Amino acid sequence: MARTQKSEMEDVAPANAAKTAAPRRKAAAEPGQRQDRRGNGDDSAPGKVVGAVAGAIKILRYLAESRVPVGVSRIAKDTKLNTSTSFNILRTLAMEDFVHFDAVSKTYSLSLGIMEIAKGATALGGDIGSLRPAMERIAHEHGVTVTLWQPVSEERKVLILSALTRNAMRIQMQVGQRLPILMGATGRVFAAFSDEPKTVLKRRFNEIRWDRPLSFDDFLAQAKETREKGYAMDRENFAMGTVSMAVPIFDRDGRPIMAVTATMFSGQYRQERVEEIVDDLKQFAVQAGRVATG
């Protein structure tokens, strides 16, 4: 996770053509028949797409899925937007603290300001910031990165909060990053409690690019084990050199609404450490569930 950029002039009619072309009358609609979706006859049809807004959304989603800060030229190329348009959108987003601009590397990444917009949809309206001290305690005590994930659709999940260890070498993930719903340890969690048919889960699984691939049957077996044990493991499937464990966070009806994950380098992994970390994650999950459901 070399495209050709279309010329802006393709959508602009020549000036002289506009003067000579005869105006066309709209054909009357048949009785009971709706007019074209851009006409006045279909009130349920979507309105005109605003290009600048669509471009800003495309850039924000691109940055959310990028694992590293990206320069404007690369952003424009990958999003198929004009370079000048991309620059102006990024500059505006930076002014509003939705993206961060690194003046040294000349790159852009999502800024925490985006969470001010997203907080109404995250944690089901709870005070998500109140969970940070508990996450930091786990991160510092165990030397791991702790992340809180929430599904935002049937296909994707978003990182809404993270806490880092004080170690000089640490694993960092960007708040606002979106990933496939079944990826990583949290993917086993959401699959374990999913009501989706096996065919749907398999389709979503096959769309994931794993660092260390595993079979769908193995994934399902691990999801089943997750439901039985109350936590999931990812051993270098999501990212080589890392091990993650995830615990579900339930609402009052017993549905998984979020998942909390602890990630460490593979060299830190020992089974006795996993049990200690999982115990702390489960205690945190209870606290987070209360906050999320008010």
Summarize this entry quickly:
The chain has 294 residues and is of the alpha+beta class. The chain has 10 helices and 8 strands.
- Can you tell me the CATH class of the largest domain? Alpha Beta
Shape: globular
Number of strands: 8
Q: Do you know the CATH topology of the largest domain?
A: Beta-Lactamase
Catalogue the unreliable spans. 1-45
**Helix-residue proportion:** 25-40%
Mean pLDDT level: 82
- Portion in strands: 15-25%
**Strand arrangement across the biggest beta sheet:** 5-4-3-8-7-6
Structural class given helices, strands, pairing? Answer: alpha+beta
Under the CATH scheme, the architecture of the largest domain is 2-Layer Sandwich
Largest sheet: 6 strands, antiparallel
Verbal overview:
The protein is α+β, with helices and mostly antiparallel strands and 294 residues long. It folds into two domains: 49-111, Winged helix-like DNA-binding domain superfamily/Winged helix DNA-binding domain (Arc Repressor Mutant, subunit A, Orthogonal Bundle); 116-293, GAF domain (Beta-Lactamase, 2-Layer Sandwich), CATH 3.30.450.40. 38% of the residues lie in helices and 17% in strands. The chain has ten helices and eight strands. It has helices spanning 15-20, 51-65, 72-79, 83-95, 114-118, 132-142, 184-192, 198-206, 216-229, 271-293; strands spanning 99-102, 107-110, 145-151, 156-163, 178-180, 232-235, 242-250, 256-265. The strands form two sheets. It has a six-stranded antiparallel β-sheet. Strands 1-2 form a two-stranded antiparallel sheet. Strand 3 (145-151) and strand 4 form a beta hairpin. Helix 2 (51-65) crosses helix 4 and helix 6 packs antiparallel against helix 10 (271-293). The longest helix is centred in the C-terminal third of the chain and has 23 residues, at 271-293. It is globular. Residues 1-45 have low confidence and may be disordered.
